[in-house]
Every structure is written in C-alpha cells, then in structure tokens.
Amino acid sequence: MRTAGPWAATGAVSDTRVIAVPDVAELVAPDHTALLTVEVQRGVVGERSVLPALAAAVASGRVLQRIAGLCRAARSVGVPVLHCTAESRSDGLGANHNARLFALSRKSGPPRPGSGAFDVHPSVGVEPMDFVLPRLHGVSPMAGTSLDAILRNLGVTTIVATGVSVNVAVLGLTFDAVNLGYQVVLARDATAGVGDDYVDAVYSNTLSLLATVTTADEVLASWSPVGPSAAT
Asked: Residues 41, 117: contact at Cβ < 8 Å?
C-alpha cells in the first residue's frame, strides 16, 4: 500500500492525516480489470473534431498514443477492452435536448455520410475481441447503457479509464462507476480535457478523491514484465 493526502497539496482541507492508497498493480490485476476508452472517436479527437480545442489537447499530450499502448498491453494479458462512443441519428431522435452541450452538437449538424465520425480513432483501433458500446443519449458512458451489465458479466471490479473529456464524460463515468461499487483507476496522461488549469483542479479536488490517479506507464508496468515500452 502507498499513502497520500489528496487534499494536502491544495490546502483545501486542514486535516493532513495520511490516507491509504491501494497499490496500482493489485488494483489492475488482469483477472478483475477492464480498460475503457471514452469517446476516443474520429469526430471528437480527430482532425475534423466538432470540439477542436479538445482535439488539440489530445494531440499535444500524445493521448492517443498512450491509449493505443494501453489497449495493446491489455489485450496481451487478457484484460477486456471496451470502447465507449457517443453517436447520434441523422434525424436527432433519441438524443438529449436538456443542456447547452447538446445544443452545440445539434448546431454542428450530423456528420457527413462516410466520414466515420463515430468510429474509434484509427490510432487506437478496434480488435475483434474488443467491445464497442455506442450510446445515443446522456453525458456518461455508463448511465442508462449496457456497460455496467457487461462489466459484471465479465467479472470486472476495476475500471481503468482513458479518453475524453475530463470536463464531462470521464468525470461522469467516474461518479457513476464509484456509485455502482467499482474501483476506478485513471491513467491521467491518457485522458484530456479543455482548460489546463481546470483539468488540474478537477483532478486535484475531485477525481483524486474518487479514483486512483496514476499514469499510463504505471498501468503498463503492471501488465507487462518488460515495463512500459508499449506506450511509446
């Protein structure tokens, strides 16, 4: 077990008692772990993203390369890989209309036929043993979808989460997963969001209290006897 005081560095809480942090290797042992990619799709993180600031954050942080490395390592040790995508119908039926974020999506219009906007980004790719779980509604890949049932049927108790965005979907997934009893491990450098200071604040003041925050290399080291070279 490692120890850390997640609020001590921010000064948000005066109580500096040491809080036990589970060992990452134990948490992500292949027999009870799944790797999730969140909205790692062409229309979100690609060159023609409807959210260019988010796509730029992904590119500058080499996030796709790290996610691809984690996917390869996960498959090699039998960790299931689940790609959680957000889609919409060309007529918009079934989609939410109750937040400004959805209005932004409607304003951009449906993707052009054949654009592959909903496809998992080719830098990450999908292998035959992977799951692809699209949703038509909401801001979290778990709420009201089949994700929870599939994970339980696979015997999963730990989720390693990657993808976008820390602003919305990754944050929502973390809340939902913790509420449902899962251990959540966030490979921070395999996630991205808009606004560097905001992303830092969310990790420091919220996500670090709900999930085990680590790096792609540390997860890779737990899944590979030769270390984290798969991320490069």
From this structure: yes
**Closest among 57, 195, 42 to 126, alpha carbons compared:** 42
List the structure tokens of 135. Answer: 């949703």
Q: What is the pLDDT of residues 169-189, one digit of tens each?
A: 999 999 999 999 999 999 999
Q: Is 175 helix (H, G, I), strand (E, B) or coil?
A: helix
What is the rounded CA–CA span in Å between residue 201 and residue 41? 26
Please tell me whether residue 16 adopts helix, strand or coil conformation: coil
Query: CB count, 10 Å around CB of 154?
Result: 15
Contact assessment for residue 177 and residue 184, using Cβ atoms and an 8 Å cutoff: yes
Residue 64: CA count within 13 A, CB half-sphere? 21
- Does residue 215 carry a pLDDT above 80? yes
CB 204 within 8 A of CB 9: yes
CA distance 100 to 76: 41
CB neighbour class for 128 (10 Å; exposed up to 12, middle 13-18, buried from 19): exposed
| Domains of the chain, start order | 2-231 (3.40.50.850)
Q: Which residue's entry shows tokens 């036929």?
A: 113
- Total-model pTM: 0.85
